[in-house]
Amino acid sequence: MKKTLQTIAAVVLTVSMLSPLAAFAQTNNPIGDTGNIQNQAPVSTLSGATSSLAKIVNWVIVIFWVLTVLFLIWAAVLYLTGAGNEEKIKEAKNRVIYAIIAAAIALLSTGLQTIVKSALSGTLS
Predict the structure, then answer these.
(1) What is the largest CA-CA distance in the chain?
(2) Handedness of CA 16, 19, 20, 21 (dihedral sign)
(3) Count H helices, E strands: the chain?
(4) Is 20 exposed, middle or buried (0-12, 13-18, 19+ CB in 10 A)?
(5) Each residue of 20-52: pLDDT tens digit?
(6) In this structure, is the dihedral angle defined by the CA atoms of residues 53, 59, 62 and 63, taken in order, positive or negative?
(7) Rounded CA gap, 37 and 90, in Å?
(8) pTM beyond cutoff 0.70
(9) Cα gap 122→45, rounded to integer Å
């Protein structure tokens, strides 16, 4: 039951943190819609494809940094409420490891974006 409540709390916290991003995704310009979204052409050029890929990778990076912070906060709460309980301290250490993994994935996403962009543009040696 406790694990279920923790999972629900984590999901609610994540959704509440990411919901403003969904509002900004509705228009091209977050401050005000100055263009008609229906007049945009589909991706038909290499630069259009790389810019679309860059947008996707940037979203992945943001999501993994948010997860990193959430795992670190969760680990700190577990560690502080552990009160010498070895099980809770071990779980807090595992959360820190998960945070490090999320940060590594975010950093690798940045490098992968550069590699793919270079490969698509033909500048990769």
Answers:
(1) 61
(2) positive
(3) 3, 0
(4) exposed
(5) 665 555 555 544 445 555 545 566 776 777 777
(6) negative
(7) 50
(8) no
(9) 14
